[in-house]
Amino acid sequence: MTAHIPHVNRAPIQDETLRLLPLAITTEDEARGCVAGITAHGAWIRPSPIPATWADDPGGPFRYRRWTRVAVAAHPGAARPEDRLLAGAPAPDGAVAAADFRALLTAVCADDVTTALAAPRSAGLVRARLLDLYARRHTRGRTFLRLVFDDDVGERFDWIVPETATRQACAPHIGDGTLDRGFAAAWLGERAEGEVFLALGLTLPTSREGRFAGCQPLVVGIHHLVRPASPRPGAGP
């Protein structure tokens, strides 16, 4: 029997206009970006193509904690259930209140990484405890940010972070292929209080081997939520 995987849209794909809450905003190269998010019903959607300028621009159509209205259609030949073809210009469609944002993340959050990225899914969300942020040179001299984190069941991961916001924040503090340790400590310290949700994504497969069937797992969105303040004893309503 096939296990039910929540938050995968299994209905026939039709052309539609929907509200998307971006939870992952990345750039693949100088020309291409990537955005994934959830609908109001918790279904993950990854529209494409996305120009890199839309992902890099703070005033662009896709921003965290803000709905975006997008027209999408079935993506020809897409192997991933979240993939959709962008069928029109996206438009901002209203900010999300802090309490509503927390509720939406909690509703789609998986218990652990294994569940979040269980086949056929290629996008998911987990709570995490952040342990380290660093930079490392990889092939062809490219430098990538990497995040070490534990999920809610205590499994530890060390994954590349292509997320635009984190990459832009860290860029001035990277020299000679390494991230300034003082900056990294401060960045981690700011996120030690409250809750951290990580949006996770899988690349297209290059083989069928390994834990994720030939796909590379990535941290594609980082969301830090400050815990609501507790009411003071004796305080009125």
Describe the overall structure.
The structure is a single chain. The chain folds into 2 domains: 83 residues, Beta Barrel (OB fold (Dihydrolipoamide Acetyltransferase, E2P)), CATH 2.40.50.140; 116 residues, OB fold (Dihydrolipoamide Acetyltransferase, E2P). The protein contains 5 helices and 15 strands. It is of the alpha+beta class and 237 residues long. The relative contact order is 0.15. The strands form 4 sheets. The chain has a 5-stranded mixed β-barrel. A 3-stranded antiparallel β-sheet has the order 8-14-15.
Instruction: Give helix and strand order, one letter per element, not per position.
Output: EEEEHEEEHHEEEEHEEHEE
Give the tally of structural domains. 2
Question: Which structural class do the helices and strands define?
Answer: alpha+beta
Q: Return Rg in Å.
A: 18 Å
What level of helicity do the residues show?
A: 10-25%
CATH class of the largest domain: Mainly Beta
Query: In this structure, how is the largest beta sheet organized?
Result: 5 strands, mixed, barrel
Question: Notable features of this structure?
Answer:
237 residues, alpha+beta, OB fold (Dihydrolipoamide Acetyltransferase, E2P), five-stranded mixed barrel, 5 helices, 16% helix, 39% strand
Compile the SSE list and pairings.
Elements: E1 16-27, E2 32-38, E3 44-48, E4 50-51, H1 52-56, E5 66-74, E6 83-86, E7 91-95, H2 98-108, H3 113-116, E8 123-127, E9 129-137, E10 143-150, E11 156-160, H4 164-170, E12 174-175, E13 178-179, H5 181-190, E14 195-202, E15 217-225
Parallel strand pairs: 3-6
Antiparallel strand pairs: 1-2, 1-5, 2-3, 2-4, 5-6, 5-7, 8-14, 9-10, 10-11, 12-13, 14-15
